[in-house]
Amino acid sequence: MEHHQQHPRTPARPGADADHVALIQAQWRRERPDLDVSPLAVIGRLHRLAARLTGELTLVYSRYGLGEGEFDVLAALRRAGAPYQRAPGELAAHTMVTTGAMTKRIDRLEHAGLVTRRLAEGDRRGRVVALTDAGLRLIDEAFTAHLRNEHRLLALLSPEEAAALQTLLTAWQQRLDGIAPGGGPAECDA
Fold it and tell me: What is the per-residue pLDDT across 160-169, written as a single tens digit (0 to 9) for each?
């Protein structure tokens, strides 16, 4: 069995995060016995897990001098295929950030020599952002390390647990995507 070094933020004992959520639930049950706090068992744990996973993922990005946003931009450009370029608005859509936030990310990456801005072929007004050779090498290395890290994190689950979780999360995401913010079906006129 492969031994992984424990991260300093790892709870002192297995299940400490789960115990923390259970403690919060118990406190709310004591303070508000009129409310059903059972959703905290799932959503509270998912929230804590998401924060923990983000911390584990960003540790790898930082080894390559990248933040989460910069990694996302380089990955979106790499996924585009040769010549590894996209319009800034397209990049914003692929990374789900505002165009203003995207401009800041592109500025940082351009300053680091990882991307370049240039005119789009066939459109003198349009501009694209493209990976430089250094950017291509960096994202290939960083993405390889990122996947190794994700495999490490998922290895904490059995293959059956990982498959069941993927199925559940996919179903929940699809159903949630069909609901307008605040509750009702997205296509429903109120």
Answer: 999 999 999 9
